[in-house]
Amino acid sequence: MDTATFVIVGVIALIVILALYALAGRSRGANRPVLRPLTTEARDRYTAKWDQIESRFLEVPEEAVREADALVLAMLGELEHPLAENRLPDAVRKARREASRGGTEHMRVAILHYRSAVADMGRITEDRERIAEGRRETA
To answer: How far apart are CA 78 and CA 57, in angstroms?
Structure first.
């Protein structure tokens, strides 16, 4: 193989690698939907509802887990999240898996996953508000 052929093969291989890397980056970004921020009122409403759900957990764990799932789905809907099962946040999928196993311990783990999801969705809003405030301050 002469030098020119070697260079051409190397350039083609580099282009293929870069194309694969770009496609992989797009597919990772496609799994993270762009979410609309919650209003402060909505966040307060969901926080109050979450507190009610957690306080009922000891009395009726299965019902509390069902209510937690409904609350998280309502939050995701308000955030304009695509509610396809394979696009749900990891915490929600883990919570559903645990809840499907039944039993008090699995319900406890499920409610912890739901708590994590609720907290993350609240932080998303706070982070965006902080970024927006920072932009206003520097403008």
So the answer is: 25
Residue 101, number of CB atoms within 10 A of its CB: 11
- Report whether 71 contacts 42 (CB < 8 A): no
Sign of the torsion formed by the C-alpha atoms of 88, 90, 94 and 95: negative
Break the chain into its structural domains and give their ranges: 1-31, 40-138
The C-alpha atoms of residue 96 and residue 19 are separated, in whole angstroms, by 37
Q: Are 92 and 113 in contact (CB under 8 A)?
A: yes
Greatest Cα pair distance, the chain, in angstroms, is 79
Specify the pTM. Answer: 0.67
What was the pLDDT predicted at 63? 95
